[in-house]
Amino acid sequence: MTQPICDSYEEFWPYYVAMHSRAATRWVHLTGTLTGLALSAYGLARGRKRYAAALPLIGYGTAWPAHFLIEGNNPASFGHPVWSLRGDVRMIRTMLAGRDHELAATAAKWLAENG
What distance in Å separates the CA atoms of residue 65 and residue 54, rounded to the nearest whole number? Predict the structure, then answer.
């Protein structure tokens, strides 16, 4: 599936969620991002600046394979890196708020209309 042309982040958001239609993909993203964030914070608190690399390495290192292996698609970050990062934060925040079902509904709706 090719990425749609989006003129705004709000247009991009439903597509981004649809590229994470399976709960397993969303949970891999959450786990990788939070693990990378925790290691980065730990390292920086200890004065080890190289630990800052943990966030992108672990975050993307777990998320991208999930797209290929679980979703069977390409990461949205390949076409829209800044909007994808913003989407990842929003998706994780939504999940941590206990509203993963909203993401599943958004993905299903976008895929039904565009898939």
Answer: 17
Question: What digits encode the pLDDT tens for the residues 70-112?
Answer: 999 988 887 888 999 999 999 999 999 999 999 999 999 999 9
Alpha-helical runs (H) found in the chain: 9-18, 23-45, 54-66, 81-96, 100-114
Global pTM value = 0.88
Q: Do 111 and 52 meet the contact criterion of CB atoms below 8 Å apart?
A: no
Distance CA 83, CA 17 (A): 12
Phi, psi at 113, each rounded to 5°? -85, -25
Residues 71/75/79/80 CA torsion (nearest 10 deg): 110
Matching residue, tokens 């599936």: 1
Reference 106, options 4, 3, 1, 14; nearest CA is 14
Res. 9 pLDDT band, cuts 50 70 90: very high
Please state the domain extents for the chain: 10-114
